[in-house]
Amino acid sequence: MISTSARLLRLLALLQDRRTTTAPVLAGRLGVTERTVRRDVEKLRELGYPVTSRAGADGGYGLGAGGALPPLLLSEEEAVAVAIGLRLATSAGLRGLDDEAVRTLARLEPLLPAPARERLRTLHAATLTLGEPETVDVDLLVALAQARRDACEVRFTYVRPEKAESRRRVEPHRLVRGGRRWYLVARDVDAASWRTFRVDRMRELTVTTWRFTPSEPPEPADVMVSRGVSTAPYPVQVRVRFEVPRAVLADLVPPTVGVIDDDGAHACVLTTGAGSALALGMHLADLGLPFRVLSPDDVATRLHAAAELLLAATAPA
């Protein structure tokens, strides 16, 4: 028979697995009587664990939220997943979280079984992060997320290179991670329109007590960010139809490069931008897929002229 301490740990693990588990099921899993289960539940409560109980046919015991986080009993695969997440957090550019991630990883890694520890170290040794992420204060992200949850208006100073600082009042809708940066999709109260903001450019953020009624933007938040990053900043913007399904083009064009929309079952339309028509044409041709420029007409004309120059330059002498 296992000791009481070991049985309590097993009971705690069982309570973490499901929202509610009946006393007979717990007794069967632990190999004890239902009376023992009830006594063990009381012992967990005395130790500070918020074990809830519910009567009825669908009732049972569960682990509720409490003032202190209970120890998590993880399987080997779960522990590896947590460790990988902690390693990613150390390079995610979240100021105020990287030190905590390193400390937690230092405590977790020695406790992993040898095979799991070796898998984690092998993965870490074989991977690199391309480029440095823009640093964002994790407290700023948390404040924006809480304001979104509570539907509270936020105010901040927005700083952009070569442009005057501006004070903004917005209704936060969604935080989006795009490439190396974090973005906030929000309704700009003063402009009465939907905007995307780079979180690393926000200063002097204040979460007000002014409540708003949440609403939906004209298109999904990830699409707004993708369009804002891949198209809006560029002088040349274009819509191109590809004769392939959307999934095929999505494997070649990331969201930071363009927005892809379905156009029937076997075609799609890419909206993207570039610094010049020639650069745009080179990128499109490099995809190696059949395409046709839909709009605007002047870009199509410039691409046609560029193509003729390239043909002439490569024609046999």
From TrEMBL:
* Domain of life of the organism encoding this protein: Bacteria
Instruction: List residues of the HTH deoR-type domain.
Output: 4-59
* GO MF terms held by the record: DNA binding; DNA-binding transcription factor activity
> Which organism is this protein's natural source?
Beutenbergia cavernae (strain ATCC BAA-8 / DSM 12333 / CCUG 43141 / JCM 11478 / NBRC 16432 / NCIMB 13614 / HKI 0122)
InterPro entries per the record?
CBASS_pafABC_assoc_protein, DeoR_HTH, HTH_11, PafC-like, Tscrpt_reg_HTH_DeoR_CS, WCX_dom, WH-like_DNA-bd_sf, WH_DNA-bd_sf
Against Pfam families, the record matches this protein to: HTH_11 (PF08279), WCX (PF25583), WYL (PF13280)
Q: What is this protein called?
A: Helix-turn-helix type 11 domain protein
Among PROSITE patterns, the record links this protein to:
HTH_DEOR_1 (PS00894), HTH_DEOR_2 (PS51000), WYL (PS52050)
Keyword tags:
DNA-binding, Transcription, Transcription regulation
Q: Which ranges does the record mark as transmembrane?
A: none
